[in-house]
Specification:
Length: 157
Amino acid sequence: MARAPVSVARPAPARPAPAAPLPAPAYVNWMDAPLTPGAWEYEDNLDNSVAEFGDRSGTAFVLWCDRQTRVVGMDRPVTSVINQQPTVSIRTETVSRQLPLQAIHNGSLTVQLRANDPLLDAMALSKGRFAVEVDGLPTLYLPSYAEVSRVIEDCRG
């Protein structure tokens, strides 16, 4: 006599636990990190010139020249509250330096250098990239394209 098939209840497949976010990869050499997504835009007028780096989500970094004072400024826009006085560091192929923060103004951290500061030359000539590090914010790995050199030269001219 043939037996009827027996139906066996199968447990539902187990759902995998949600994956924890992956930590940002660490690079032995900062120059191996991928460039920050975005592009430079340059603007010039009689008093100053500005190069902004960013993408559709907004501006990530601004390099500007005040021709009258011969000062080159760097602004890092911030969207979160920073409670302490953060350290701002610029890394290039040949020079790394911590810079004193001059201001937290209009949602940006600002540092300034004299136009003849050698750090600016290192930024413009640093194997195609330089890094901007601010305590508590993601590091920016920025291409040292022509817009960077133009702003620096505008302040020296």
